[in-house]
Every structure is written in structure tokens, then in C-alpha cells.
Amino acid sequence: MDILRSIVEEYIETGEPVSSRSISKRRHDNLSPASVRNVMADLDEDGYLTQPHTSAGRVPTGKAFQVYVQSLTARPMHGPEIVRMQAELNRAESVEGRVERSSRMLRELTRGLGIAAAIPSSGQTLEQIELLSLADGRVLMIVVTRDRMVRNRVVSLDEAVSQDELNSIRNYINRNFSGWILSEVRVELRRRLAQESAAYDEILTKVDLLYTKGLLDVEMSAEVHMDGASNLVGLDLHLTREKMRELFRTLEEKKKILQLLDQFLELPTGTVAVQVGLADAHPGMKELSLIGLCILLPNGLSAKVAVIGPIRMNYGKAISAVMHVGQAFQSIPV
Q: Taking burial as the number of CB atoms within 10 A of a residue's CB, which of 91, 98, 228, 250 is the most buried?
């Protein structure tokens, strides 16, 4: 497979079909072009190479790229670079900010499309809520969980509630339920509100007003951020203009990006996964590759970092970038 590695590396560098003569010159073991040609014929027969034209050289297949990337190891980054990445992520005050900065780092390091996602667990723990009075009888409800995920929604009330009353409701929830799992908070609130005494408790009456508007029922959806989609524009993906627009519409949908990550990042947590060719996810992505990593954060939150780039990308550099950004993300306490 040593010759196969040389073929893949030359194809990544040139983008042209690789000849036996060029591989013979590239190597230092004095293998003749005829000997290399025989090996290439065997690799072709085994599905590792394909020949676009009879007189042309050969092009590595997806199968060849998969074998090639399995032989690579992540290149170590210098200590100052790791420290810089951790400091950059540490400046983010929320998981959402950390996700955004991680995707930007991946784009800068690889010149590809950087993706980062934080996926909340089903048993998120309440840290605190905040309630702010807005104009026209509206209230901003903010829910913060222990994993530093923040969600908010604006609701309109049928009767006026002052900021002082909202502060009392906020204090009641935070004092009684901070540290509780959100689903259990909702169950206990329903129980308390169902009691006859609730009708005579001024605070619970106001809590009931907000509860019917979805207090603590804020959807904890995954936080996804992408950076560098424009880097795909200059690639020759052999797509029509309409197919390229369709591809970008797909990449703009958070749900489809999460499906893509779920589909190809099935290796154990902490293991870098490489998928060469993404046609199974979208026909327009057949000449793109994905390199990604799943990591676990405190309090059950999981995260995924990944890079999408051309099949002819620098895999060693991309694998290293994904691994180190993932480690920096995981090392910052929440």
C-alpha cells in the first residue's frame, strides 16, 4: 500500500491522473515505471484506482482515500497554539459562543467549511431564569441551564405584570428549583398550581399566568454553527449553478447538518472519523469529504466538531485541526 499512498498524495497535489512514471520518479527505491505500472494495474483491479481514459494515468477512488487516511496520524500542534485556542474559547461566555468560535477556528486552520454543534441532553438542569418586562405587555423569558445553554422567548400577556412582580416570580423559581432537571420542575409546578391554596398565593397566581405561556417550556434545541461556506464556491464540484444553489440551501438547514453529522460520526467519542465522499447525504456532495469528532462535555452535553472540504484536501492537517479544536473545546470548564 506504500505505492497507493504515493499515488493519493500526488493526486491531492496535482488533481491530475497519476502516471507510473511520475510515481517512479517520486519514490526513492528505484522501482521502474514498469514495476509501478504492474502494481497500479493490481490496485485498479481491486477497486483502489480508476482510469478515466485508456491512455491516461489513474485516479484514486474513495476506497483508496479511506485506506490513505487510516494511515495518517494527527500532527501535534505547538503548545502556544493550543493555549491560544483555549484562551479564545474561554472568552466565550456561553456554549453558543464557544460553538461559533470553534467553527471559525476550523475554517481558519483548514480553509474548509468548519462546523461545530452542541447537543443538549434530555435531562438538562436549571441554573436560573430571568424575566424582563417589554413594551406592549410582552415579557422576555430567559432560561439558563447548568451546561451554559441559553434559550429565550418573548410572550404577550393578557394582563399587565410589573417588573417588580416578574422579579418576585424569578426569585421564586430560582430559589425553589435551581439545580432541578427541567422536566421535573415542570411536573412540580403543575402539582403546586393544581392545589387549592395556589389561588390565594399572589406569587403562584402570577407564576400560573406565565406558566400557561410556556414558562420553562423553552425548547432546548441543538446549537449549530458553520463558518467558511464560501470556501466551497471555488471548488470544481462538477455541479450546475442550480445544483450548487441547492447544495448551499441544504448546508443552511440546521436539521440537515445535524443529520449529516449523525450519519458519519458514529465512531466512539474522542475518535476522529473520516468520510470520503458524501453522496449518501446529498448528491452534490459526492466530491466532498468530512472529518469530525464527537466529544462529551460536563452535565451530559455532547458536542461535535467537523470540517467539510474537497476530496483532495490536506487530510493530515484537517485531522490535526479537528482533534485539537475538539480537545480545546472539551478542556474549558462549563
A: 98
Grid coordinates representing 104 are: 471559525
Is there a contact between 292 and 304 (Cβ–Cβ < 8 Å)? Answer: yes
All three cell numbers of 219, joined, read 425548547
The CA–CA distances, whole Å, from 329 to 121, 132, 227, 326 equal 17, 32, 16, 5
Q: Residue 198, by phi and psi: left (phi above 0), alpha (psi -120 to 50) or beta?
A: alpha
Question: The pTM is what?
Answer: 0.70
pLDDT of residue 220: 60
44, exposed or middle or buried, with CB in 10 Å at 0-12, 13-18, 19+? middle
Alpha carbon of 271 to those of 49, 107, 274, 300, 329: distances in Å?
28, 20, 10, 18, 15
Output Rg (C-alpha) for the chain, integer angstroms: 27
Stated as kind and residue range, the H or E segment containing 276 is strand 273-276
Dihedral sign, CA of 40, 46, 51, 54?
Answer: positive
Q: Which of 265, 226, 257, 274 is nearest to 74 (CA)?
A: 274
pLDDT in tens, 117-128: 887 665 678 899
Helix (H, G, I), strand (E, B) or coil at 332: coil
C-alpha cell, 160 = 399587565
- Give me the helices (H) in the chain, please: 2-14, 20-26, 33-45, 62-70, 79-90, 95-110, 163-177, 182-194, 202-211, 241-251, 254-264, 315-331
pLDDT, one tens digit per residue, over 155-164 is 888 778 889 9
